[in-house]
Design a protein that fits this description.
Residues 28-92 form the Phosphomannose isomerase type I helical insertion domain. With 236 residues, this protein is an alpha+beta fold. It has helices at residues 2-11, 13-19, 21-29, 34-44, 47-58, 67-78, 85-88, 140-146, 193-201, and strands at 102-103, 156-157, 160-164, 168-173, 183-187, 210-213, 216-219, 229-230. It folds into 2 domains: 2-146, Phosphomannose Isomerase, domain 2 (Orthogonal Bundle); 159-230, no CATH class.
Length: 236
């Protein structure tokens, strides 16, 4: 929420100075355009000023309860040299996920994966716009024109459990307002390739078109009448 960003500006004067007094006042008043104006100001800030602010902030020892500060220190360790993405941590939700959880992000929502292994599913797109935490080119103006600025908590998507045949179950992750794709996680104590194929064939709705298996990759031809095939022998 905007109130947390305002609190960060008070806790870290370097961040408040980088944004400026007018922006900090907007954050205090929770003005409609406060989030957009504050983040845009941060991303357009002079690189040297950003680096100086980061150095000052990460040089302090974080309080035990100050998770955002700890993340900023870790991100600066991974991306040294004044990467503006380090300060973005004070504008974003911090989410700790556990196996089986799904985080739903609307299009044009800035995000970053700090650690761990995840599977990302998205509609086909060739326009990744970088905003930080990378040595690659960042087109800040295109980024700011594309982003949707909303102050809201993270959206954890709960799965729907379905039966696939007599012994198999699956969890379906399907956001209500997304028609492009859904993610299905099938599970049993032990999986063989044939069981994966059986699960896909008996899936209640349209079978998944692309699948991941611990022993390899399974593929289903586009034509529904065609037989599912596997790139791995059944005994693996």
């Amino acid at each position: 929420p905007v109130s947390e960003i305002s609190a960060f500006c008070k806790r870290f004067p370097e961040l408040g100075s980088l944004l400026g007094a007018d922006i900090c006042k907007q954050l205090d008043e929770n003005a409609d355009e406060a989030l957009k104006n504050a983040y845009s100001t941060l991303m357009r800030a002079d690189g040297e000023a950003v680096a100086e602010a980061i150095t000052a902030i990460v040089s302090r020892a974080p309080a035990a309860s100050d998770e955002a500060h700890s993340f900023a220190i870790e991100l600066d360790r991974q991306f040294p040299g004044g990467d503006v993405g380090v300060l973005s941590v004070f504008f974003l939700n911090i989410v700790h996920m556990v196996p089986g959880q799904c985080l739903y992000l609307k299009a044009n929502t800035p995000h970053a994966y700090v650690s761990g292994d995840i599977m990302e599913c998205m509609a086909c797109s060739d326009n990744v716009i970088r905003g930080g935490l990378t040595p690659k080119y960042k087109d800040i103006e295109v980024l700011l024109k594309s982003l949707v600025f909303e102050s809201r908590p993270a959206s954890i998507l709960r799965p729907t459990h379905v039966k696939c045949g007599a012994e198999c179950e699956a969890s379906t992750y399907a956001p209500d307002d997304i028609d492009d794709f859904e993610v299905v996680k099938g599970f049993r104590e032990h999986w063989a390739v044939k069981e994966w194929l059986d699960m896909l064939s008996s899936y209640p709705s349209s079978p998944p078109a692309e699948c991941l298996h611990p022993s390899g990759v399974l593929e289903r031809p586009l034509a529904p009448s065609e037989v599912l095939t596997s790139s791995e022998p059944e005994d693996q």
